[in-house]
Amino acid sequence: MAYTEEELKKELETKEYEYGFYTDIDSDTFPVGLNEDIVRAISKRKEEPEWMTDWRLDAYRSWVEMKEPDWHNVQYTKPDFQAISYYSAPSKKDKYESLDEVDPELLDTFKKLGISIDEQKVLAGVAVDIVVDSVSVATTFRDTLAKKGIIFCSISEAIKDHPDLVRKYIGTVIPVKDNYYAALNSAVFSDGSFCYIPKGVRCPMELSTYFRINQAGTGQFERTLVVADESSYVSYLEGCTAPSRDENQLHAAVVELVAMDDAEIKYSTVQNWYPGNKEGKGGVFNFVTKRGICHNNAKISWTQVETGSAVTWKYPSCILKGDNSIGEFYSIAVTNNFQQADTGTKMIHLGKNTRSTIISKGISAGRSQNSYRGLVQVHPKATNARNFSQCDSLLMGDQCGAHTFPYIEVKNNSAQIEHEATTSKIGEDQIFYCNQRGIDTEKAIALIVNGFSKEVLNKLPMEFAVEAQKLLEISLEGSVG
Amino acid sequence: MLTVKDLHASVEGKEILKGINLQVNPGEVHAIMGPNGSGKSTLASVIAGNEDYEVSLGEIFLNGEELSEADAEERAHKGIFLSFQYPIEIPGVTVTNFIKTAINANRKAQGLEDMPAKDMLKNIREKAALLEIDSKFLSRSLNEGFSGGEKKRNEIFQMAMLEPKLAILDETDSGLDIDALKIVANGVNKLKSKDNAVVVITHYQRLLDYIVPDFVHVLYNGKIVKSGTKELAHELEAKGYDWIKQLVD
To answer: How many CA atoms lie within 13 A of A389 on its CB side?
Structure first.
């Protein structure tokens, strides 16, 4: 195994972030900085109605008064919010009739990401609403969905075409003043997705959005709103990759879910943004607010596989407002090298007979820090609330850290709360056992990690689960020397 | 098949093997016996390539090829299989998934494609039947919550699937009741051919009633102090290890 210097370099380079390429598309970018004029300009550029502009300005004014939170267990250089450009869109503004009209370079980007739109249309039956640098450029399957009365489009279009629906629900689950990053997002969100499932409709396919940050120095502020009307069902997939950069990129998304009576929303995420290099330089700052509200007999399941970003701050939560409603949170968070993740959930039990389940799997390698932070809150009127929480940590090497911060607040003594936590290490004996069966060390780690994460991987839709398994392997490459 | 020459090995600075010589030919069954702490398991681990042990002197050859540069998975690819005395748990990974991964890793090393799912399934069914393994067992997490007997049976199942050239069975009889012992021994015997070889490491004569060795070696204090045919195992059973100790000391 004698390497020449050149071969070694080459091999190392190919192990760098797989999707670390950059697409050179003409972009239409705002000057850096944030003030009321920029907020107005974003709104104007997007041809928004006045109420939306006012809503954004209200959020902006709140944000100016707020302080960046510092209670989380992560350390980073605070972004300079005046050094970020708040709007960037591919310059072709026309909507495309077919893929032939789409910028070939953009299509090439999709190819590198392994998203063959045509293939996906046929094979997976997934309608894809792709967000490249903030504006949706390709939407498929909309006709099929429209026949069932399902609306699936970019949030910008929804503001134009379905203003009443958007106005009725936006900011109702996550108020503009909810937290620092949610306020910032509300002020400047560039685009995102909107989905509405009418009463009694079961969405016939998985709805999928691929997010991507694609412009140097552009923060991305996605806004997603999913409304499942009474007795409807939808499964929504969100997956993302980003090109590698030296400077830190800020990402502050907001996702709001509304599950009306008897409705069910399954929301799955695979997050694979650039985590920074091996020395901890660069990488995405991911400050996300995700929350759903369940009305009577409704159910919301969050499933997430978090492998990317330099810093992650994310707590997909459920407000169990309605009686008999159910909230679920299944999470795998992987940190390697210098990554930091502080993630978990909040289950707020307000209604009677509400149930919640939390399964969190943290995998730490390198010099990374991985924290689970969760809150289970049972309000005085939430009779017979039940929660089960399980937080497992897997450590690789002896320079990483795993932390668990479970908060439990119970104000109704009929509640049943269970919390289990384990911490384990990948043992050399396990690796040797695999080696002896002919399985190399990288593959052995992937096997052990997949076994550890199985309960969560099983919750993902099939095609997503396969992708997620590959991601786990890529993320942990080179983590055992 | 296997040639061990003047093998010295130590762990944490303590020399355990003090000059082992062993020749195993294709089609042969060798038994290695000896009291606790004599170095039996160390010998098995060193042949399998466990890097916890340092080989200070001597050589191991497999089919004429010297192995010091080969790490554990390369040795496995070359056909060495170790049935562990204490099989390791891997939570969440099923018996089926594990063996599938192992088989395909070995095929890849030989430049072959993954085994088609249909063939894999057929193979698994056949080998499970050979060892009287219930299909429910195959979907359990590897060695997690297994009884001692189930663990050992699973080791032999993996051996049956991987079809190694050289199988080293380290105390496979411990933890097995007499019925399980017969099933396991029967499995091993059916897998035996003129092209492969088996090294059985055991304390007791019991297993050797079912897997009949061509040669028996007695390991004591890091050296093979006596070799013979299967009668040696009976003699050892009758006279006890003190007999060997007196012989040597």
So the answer is: 22
